[in-house]
UniProtKB/TrEMBL annotation:
Keywords attached to this entry: ATP-binding, Helicase, Hydrolase, Nucleotide-binding
UniProt GO MF annotations: ATP binding; hydrolase activity; nucleic acid binding; RNA helicase activity
InterPro entries in the cross-refs: DEAD/DEAH_box_helicase_dom, DEAD_box_RNA_helicase, Helicase_ATP-bd, P-loop_NTPase, RNA-helicase_DEAD-box_CS
Listed SMART domains: DEXDc
Name recorded for this polypeptide: DEAD/DEAH box helicase domain containing protein
Pfam families given in the database record: DEAD (PF00270)
A Gene Ontology term for the protein's cellular component: cytosol
Residue ranges of every copy of the Helicase ATP-binding domain listed in the record: 35-209
Amino acid sequence: MKAKDGLELSEELQRGIAAYGVPEHELTFLQRRAIARLAEGKDVVVHAGGGRGKTIAMVVGILQRIAAQGKDSVQVLLVLPTRELAQGTDHIVRSLGAHMDIRTQLIVGGVQQARNYKQMLRELASVQVVVSTPGRMLDAIIRGGMDPEQVRMLVLDEADETMSRGFEEVVDDMIKVLPRDIQIAMFTCTMHPECTRVAQEYMSQHVSADEKKPKADTR
């Protein structure tokens, strides 16, 4: 179904958005652009300050990609720099996707998580969205039950903070074990030098989504 702003969103996703309290007709240019590019399967860099709605755009775009392609065809890895951010984003994914028949798995540190860690890894093949921190995500890719070749999207949220914390090599290692044609999305408040490098090295003809006119990479 086409939303009021022209976005093609599934009915189940629209129900989740409404229940979460996000008026579809109030989505900003930044959000609409990011959602559309994510749903189309294109690489995208979303560079904007805090409070600009990046997280909502990211989650809606991810869920619409799953809705459009089928839950058995898309597996998304969503990487955040800290456990707290991962937990908060996992909650948003579950809330917005509440009416969709998808599975989400949060993998972070902690005593309770450690007890179930091996079991969680074994079950990853049937999960559509995996939310984790960089080190845990890399471990899940290497040792988990998922097939890396089935992963269709890698999303780096708060990418500048991830790089500032020294995870650039972990990000490189993740990308290298995933399919060469994987869709990569980066959401960041600032363009850390490592964010720029990752975009240039791994993101084919990525689109920049910001509050100005978007620019395509002309490499």
